[in-house]
Amino acid sequence: MSASATHEFPSLIGGTPYPIDFAPSILFSVLHALLIPIFVWRMAHSQTRHFVLVGVFAFTVERTVLYALRANAAHNVGPRISETLETYMQTTLSGSFISIGMGVVQLARSVLVQATKGSDVLAIEAKLKSEKDQKLDSTSSSESDRVSRGRVPPHDGCPPRVCDGPVGR
Asked: Mind telling me which residue stretches traverse the membrane in this protein (predicted)?
């Protein structure tokens, strides 16, 4: 059996974008761009903020840009024959898996560390967290009660010791 010269094996990491690649490139660029507000929201809220998100966020932004450039190259002949753009796209397509791999390693490490703590340590941590939450709730409710009764003037969001006195007001 001889190898046929007409049989083409597609590039596993992109290849040259042709006009048929225009619609999928736009679709994937938009889908990756829709993930960006989710990452921004998660980074803004401390309960869902994790260091693992940094690499995945960079991956998402980079893929959004990559697919937008790929759509441009599929639509226009000039960028399609640009060797620099082709090198950038091939490098980022293959290299961005490193950030995803690092995120997977961090998540696996987190799972393994939680698994080695044992049930007694997890129970103690849960108890301490619930006591801390109760203490915070009782402190905030008692201060709001005193403010509503008129015993303590409201502090406009700054700490009491800073706002008390002639300079703070």
From this structure: 22-44
Question: What DSSP string describes 87-132?
Answer: HHHHHHHHHHHHHHHHHHHHHHHHHHHHHHH-HHHHHHHHHHHHHH
Q: Tens digits of per-residue pLDDT, 6-48?
A: 766 656 567 788 889 899 999 999 999 999 999 888 888 877 7
Q: Please state, as a whole number, how many other Cβ atoms lie within 10 Å of the Cβ of residue 64.
A: 19
Burial of 82 (C-beta count, 10 Å sphere; 0-12/13-18/19+): middle
Q: Is residue 2 a part of any domain in this protein?
A: no
Is 10 among the domain residues?
A: no
Using DSSP's 3-state secondary structure scheme, residue 156 falls into coil
pTM of the predicted structure, to 2 decimals = 0.60
Residue 169 lies in a domain: no
**5 assigned to some structural domain:** no
Q: Number of helices (H) and strands (E) in the chain: give both, helices first.
A: 6, 0
